[in-house]
Structures are given as C-alpha cells and as structure tokens.
Amino acid sequence: MIAARPRVRVHVVAIDDDHRMLLDRRPRTQVWALPWGYLGVGEDPARLARSLVRDTGAAPERPRVQSVEGAVEHGEHFLDVTLHCTADRIWKPTTGGRSSNALWWSLDEISSLDLSARARSALVNAWDVLWPHV
Questions:
Q1: Distance between terminal CA atoms of the chain?
Q2: Which domain of life is it from (predicted)?
Q3: What pLDDT sits at residue 12?
Q4: Spatial separation of the C-alpha atoms in residues 1 and 58, rounded to whole Å
Q5: What is the tens place of the pLDDT at every residue in 105-114?
Q6: CATH homologous superfamily of domain 7-125?
Q7: I need a labelling partner for 132 at 20 to 30 A (CA). Which of 13, 74, 96, 116 fits?
C-alpha cells in the first residue's frame, strides 16, 4: 500500500515594527490563529509566508523556519511548517492575492483573545522578540 503524501500547511509568525503580532480569526471556531495557507506543488514556503503578511498591507522581511511538525487530523496527514518573519507596517493597499482577515495585535490586546494552541505556542516562542522589555 502506498501512503498518501501529507498536505503541507505553512503558518507564519509575523511581528511588525511596533512589536505587534499578526493573527487571523478562524470563521468556524472564532479562535484567533496564525495566518496560514496550503503549500502548492513547487511553491516556496517562504514566498507563501511573505504573501500572507503582504496581504495585510505590511512589507515582510526574510522568513525563517521556526518549527516543522507532523499532525494527523480526521484521518488526514499534515506537515505543518511554521516560519517567523518581521514586517514593516507600510500599509499600502494590496493588489491581487487573497483578501486577509488577519489583524495586528499588541500584548495587551492579545491577552484578551481566544487563541489557538499553535498561536499560544508561537507567542511563547516569540516572546523575547515581541516584547523584549516586558
């Protein structure tokens, strides 16, 4: 039996120049999560991560791999690649691409949000970058 290849999901931990974190609200669960997308055949994960940030009107810097994890959900195998990048908030209108529901959140604002497990984990891992003096 040939095992099916896992679907690859690319998540991005984006931190802007004002130390805000980018989060996207999931419509079905209303939980705030890291922006993510499925990686297409031959697509570059860093390019997908940059486009997720660019869709908010910000200018992303070089994404780098933060973690790679495997997951099985509802009988389907996934490979989750999480990239971290910084972004300059230039707030230019986006052209093309998908529309984004993602928003930039400060520490005070994040503390009142219902976060996904992946977003909570990313927040802990990025703490020193997000808020170095807290």
A1: 53
A2: Bacteria
A3: 95
A4: 46
A5: 988 898 889 9
A6: Nucleoside Triphosphate Pyrophosphohydrolase (3.90.79.10)
A7: 116
